[in-house]
Amino acid sequence: MVFMKIITLGDELLRQKAKKIEKIDEDTLKIANKMLEIIERDKGVGLAGPQIGFMKRIFVVHVEGDEKRIFINPSILETSHATSKYEEGCLSVPGVYANVVRSESIKLQAWNEKGRPFTMEAGGLLARVILHEYDHLEGVLFLDHVSEKVRENLLAKYEKASAGAKT
């Protein structure tokens, strides 16, 4: 089932591994385009299938100054030894931000919306966003990349904010 709304921390789907897309068809493209609409609407830079309950290996990215991109069945081929720390957030963990260390550059392979394979290299913010969204396909959240103490503090902050939003 595809919810087409962003699911948030606590939903077990965020911790499950996504499955390979066997056939890139019109339905896959509709979902990818809807995902691009969602990140525009919610002012995000990326969104992965599991974040909307679509448990398939797809994510979309739109970093300011770059084109909108669709990645289907991606594989990370290489990551740089050089790393950098940058503040990340997530549409599935609203209001929570943390400094995360990631590789500065990557090389990956994926299929595009036309069903054609491609290989690309990315650096800087684009590489970071791709790695963040790729993590979602593996059931990993950006909070998993911070220390246990920082994670506990962020989760407490998130739970407090979530409880306040429900009252």
Could you list some keywords that capture this structure?
alpha+beta, two-stranded antiparallel sheet, 3 helices, Peptide Deformylase, single chain, 7 strands
Provide an overview of this structure.
There is one protein chain. This protein is α+β, with helices and mostly antiparallel strands and 167 residues long. It has a single domain (12-166), classed as Peptide Deformylase (Alpha-Beta Complex). 29% of the residues lie in helices and 31% in strands. It is built from 3 helices and 7 strands, in the order αβββββββαα. It has a 5-stranded antiparallel sheet with strand order 1-2-3-6-7, sandwiched between helices. Strands 4-5 form a two-stranded antiparallel ribbon. It starts with 25 loop residues before the first helix and ends with a helix. The mean pLDDT is 94.
Report a brief summary of the structure.
The protein is an alpha+beta fold and 167 residues long. The protein is 29% helix and 31% strand. The protein has one domain: Peptide deformylase (Peptide Deformylase).
